[in-house]
Amino acid sequence: MKFPPPFISGSEDINVIIETPKGCGNKYAFDPEFGLFILTKILPHGIVFPHHFGFIPHTKGEDGDPLDVLVLMDEPSYPGCLVNCKVLGVIQAEEKNGGPPVRNDRLIAAALESHHYKKLSSLRRMDKYEQNEIVNFLYAYTNLSKKEFKHLKNKGRKTAIELIKKQVNGNN
To answer: Which domains does the chain have, with CATH numbers?
Structure first.
């Protein structure tokens, strides 16, 4: 399966492939071997993804997976949908699964076509309650996987774009 480049040509906006839609209690992940989205987890009753969850193609984070992105968008999407996004910032985090901690940052972006989020220019301008809601979801979601999650800090657009550029094609 061929994916688009990480950045939209001539800009710092990004292409994101949605894996799990907002409001979904199922976790889907793209399997490159089969070119399909596979159900990898069912969350406990009452826990759902607060925003769309996806990845930036042609990137590789320290955890070995493509960079994770939470996409702010008005309406639900579906697994496999390509969404053009404006980068807002990054939630820097570490996860531990029996061994040493590994960085597993989550980028935050807004869909370029979003009516509600299109004027948001940075994670720092996002409502603090909504930022905390995302971090709390990440704690709960990660703990369900028997991993330890440690939130380090939230950083803005510039740091997030530098991270993406560093991780393109796994150049970390």
So the answer is: 14-165 (3.90.80.10)
Number of H-type helices and E-type strands within the chain: 2, 9
DSSP 23: T
How far from chain centre, in Å, is Cα 138? 11
Nearest to 96 by CA among 64, 155, 143, 134: 143
Q: Are strands 148-156 and 26-31 parallel, antiparallel or unpaired?
A: unpaired
Name 167's Cβ contacts closer than 8 Å, sequence gap at least 6. 59, 60, 61, 67
CB of 61 closer than 8 Å to CB of 172: yes
Pairing of β 106-111 and β 68-72: parallel
* DSSP classification of residue 44: P
Range 26-45 burial, b when 16+ CB lie within 10 A, else e: ebbbbeeeeeebeeeeebee
pLDDT in tens, 85-131: 999 999 999 999 889 999 999 999 999 999 999 899 999 999 999 99
User: Is the whole-model pTM more than 0.85?
Assistant: yes
